[in-house]
Amino acid sequence: MSNSTPSPSPLSNESVPPSGTDGDQQAESTTSSARNVLKGSTQFLSFWAAVGLPFIYLPLLAQGLGDPRATLIFLGLLGINILTLYIGHDYKRG
Question: Model-level pTM greater than 0.70?
Fold first, then answer.
């Protein structure tokens, strides 16, 4: 006669998320947490880039903007600075 109870599997199922709403909530929580980390990092980098970019303007302005290439670089940096100000404006705001 054969024993009808299955033998336990040597592999664990700890890596498999529980089925049902708990697994969905855990996945949503992980996604939300990753999104918050990415948002915070982006705001941090944008804030400090917005603070530091004006120091790059100084040599350009000291040289003068008579050269079309220098003018284009200055306007590009100014546009990037405006974008970083917009993205980073809420960094460390309560």
Answer: no
Decide if pLDDT at 11 tops 70. no
- What would the DSSP string read from start to end of 28-92? HHHHHHHHHHHHHHHHHHHHHHHHHTHHHHHHHHHH-S-SHHHHHHHHHHHHHHHHHHHHHTTTT
Name the nearest CA neighbour of 48 among 9, 87, 21: 87
Domain ranges of the chain: 36-88
**82: closest CA among 49, 55, 57, 45?**
49
Which token pair is 93? 């705001």
C-alpha dist (Å) from residue 60 to 67, 80, 89: 10, 15, 25
